[in-house]
Each structure stands twice: as structure tokens, then as C-alpha cells.
Design a protein that fits this description.
The protein is an alpha/beta fold and 285 residues long. Helix content is 31%, strand content 32%. It is built from ten helices and twelve strands. The strands form two sheets. Strands 8-7-6-9-10-12-11 form a seven-stranded mixed sheet, with helices on both faces. The model has no long low-confidence stretch (mean pLDDT 95). Bound molecules: spermidine (SPD). Spermidine binds next to strand 5 and helix 2.
């Protein structure tokens, strides 16, 4: 029998649900993993009660995490992805011929297995690309073992703060990232919602601003996330890393994207809601 079920993410007296056929429900050593197939959003992944991605709306998220960092930076050869077990971030990075190595460090092997089995379209060819190395490990411990100036770009593609992901939002962790970034490369992180995770969002922005010389946040939306509005923050030691990219590079990447383009990005960097702006830039805060 092929019964439909409603699966909801609960946040602050509200819930965000999808209805569909249950494809997977299991508990790994770290979390509960659910995958359902929904008529509007395709196959959707939920971890510990929070929607992570879906095959129809994932591009809103992955294209915004990756391209603002890789489009403008000169050296993008050596990349670290923390989390990203569905493969979407790696797939976007591999659109750049200059990328020669990606270390993808995912704590939960079951997320990778489930994504390879049920969410094939998200990782796509990334899973078989020689440039991608997968490490089942704790991202916080991983960065501690890496030598100074090693990576050109670091992507933090993690779930919302929880018992086992909290440290990925901490100042100590960001400092380690800064240490292993070469020549002030770029740290790019998903930075939660200014609406449904306002406190956490402000905390991430303030922490990054205290550690890096430059930190810029863009806002857009991811339809299946609570409240829809989402953010991504890019931090570096060197303002000139945010170069004006060549027209050729822009059009090469734009032609391969569904959501991202240079205008979308430019607008998104001007979208900080005023209530967040006041919190971040008020003297003494
Ligand atoms: N509330 C959901 C936050 C999830 C951010 N990471 C999603 C992983 C997609 N690769």
C-alpha cells in the first residue's frame, strides 16, 4: 500500500509540513533520518525533525552557499566542506574547473548512504568525481588537525544548532577555520533564518564579525525551511577577495544555475532586514 503521510517540522508554535510517501525512516548513531516523496518538492530529507533539503528546492540553498564564494575568489583549488552529506554543495563546487580537491567531512555516514540511494539527483556526478574525497569524521576535530593556510575556501553546510552540531557555530571553531584558510580565503556558512532562528542568526553574524576582518551576509529564501527566509554569510581576512569576477566566468556559471545569477546575488547582499541591521551595527552591542 502506498499511503501518504504528513511530516512536520515544529518551530515556535508553528509547523512546516510536507505530505508524501515515506521512503526512509531510520535512526543513525547521531539522528533520525526521514526521506519522503512529495508531489511539489520531490524527495525531501529531514534530520532530527528539521527539513534539510528537497530535490526540487535545493538549488535555492546550494547555489547561494557556493557561488558567492567561488565566483569572486582567485584561488579556489583546495576546498573543505563540513557537513554537506547530501552532495549538493560538492556538486556546485565541481562546476569550477579550477577546483582540484574537495574534502567533504560529514559526521554521519548514514546521511551520505541515504542521499546516494534516494536523493541521487542532488549529489549527481559529484559522488564519482575524482576531485571529491569523503571523510566520515567530526568537522570540529577535522579542522584542528589541519595545518595553517591549507584550504582556499571552507563551506559549512550544517544542520541547525543541536547537541552535536552546536560547536560548528562557535567562535573557537571559526577561529580554527580562519587559521587553516590560506591568504585570507573565504569561509562560507549557512547562517540560519533572520525570522525563525533570529537569535542564532544574530549570534553567528556577531561572532564572525569579531573574528574576521570582513563578513557579508546575503538573504534569500528556501521554500521548505521554516518561514522561508534564509541567510548565508561569507567571511574573510582580505576584502579584495570579493573581486569583480570576469564576465566570462559569470556567464559560464550562470548558464549552469537554476537560481543564482550575479543580479540575484547583488540584490541578496542588500537584503539585510532592518531589525537585524540595527542589532548588528548598533554601537556597544
Ligand atoms: N533548517 C535547515 C538548515 C539546514 C541547512 N543545511 C542544509 C543541508 C543542505 N545541504
Amino acid at each position: 500500500m502506498n499511503t501518504s503521510v504528513w511530516i512536520d517540522e515544529y518551530q515556535k508554535d508553528s509547523r512546516f509540513g510536507l505530505k508524501g510517501k515515506l521512503l526512509l525512516k531510520k535512526t543513525s548513531s547521531f539522528q533520525e533520518i526521514i526521506i519522503i516523496e512529495n508531489n511539489e518538492y520531490g524527495k525531501a530529507l529531514m534530520l532530527d525533525g528539521c527539513w534539510m533539503t528537497s530535490s526540487k528546492d535545493e538549488k535555492y540553498y546550494h547555489e547561494c552557499l557556493v557561488h558567492p564564494a567561488l565566483i569572486s575568489l582567485k584561488n579556489i583549488s583546495n576546498i573543505l566542506i563540513i557537513g554537506g552529506g547530501d552532495g549538493g554543495t560538492a556538486r556546485e563546487c565541481l562546476k569550477y574547473p579550477d577546483v582540484s580537491n574537495i574534502d567533504l567531512v560529514e559526521i554521519d555516514e548514514e546521511v551520505i548512504k541515504a542521499s546516494k540511494q534516494f536523493l541521487k539527483e542532488i549529489g549527481g556526478n559529484a559522488w564519482t568525481d575524482d576531485r571529491l574525497s569523503i571523510h566520515i569524521d567530526d568537522g570540529v576535530k577535522w579542522v584542528e588537525t589541519i595545518k595553517d593556510d591549507y584550504y582556499d575556501v571552507i563551506f559549512i553546510d550544517c544542520s541547525d544548532p543541536s547537541e552535536f552540531s552546536n560547536l560548528l557555530f562557535s567562535g573557537d571553531f571559526y577561529k580554527q577555520c580562519k587559521r587553516i584558510l590560506n591568504n585570507g580565503g573565504i569561509l562560507a556558512t549557512q547562517s540560519e533564518s533572520p525570522e525563525s532562528f533570529k537569535k542564532i542568526h544574530i549570534n553567528i553574524l556577531k561572532t564572525l564579525r569579531n573574528i574576521f576582518k570582513v563578513s557579508k551576509t546575503m538573504y534569500s529564501f528556501v521554500p521548505i525551511y521554516p518561514s522561508g527566509i534564509w541567510s548565508w554569510t561569507f567571511a574573510t581576512e582580505d576584502e579584495s577577495n570579493f573581486l569583480e569576477p570576469s564576465k566570462k566566468k559569470i556567464s559560464e556559471i550562470e548558464s549552469q544555475c537554476e537560481i543564482w545569477n550575479m543580479n540575484y546575488q547583488d540584490g541578496a547582499f542588500k537584503m539585510m532586514p532592518n531589525n537585524i541591521l540595527k542589532e548588528i551595527y548598533t554601537v556597544g552591542k
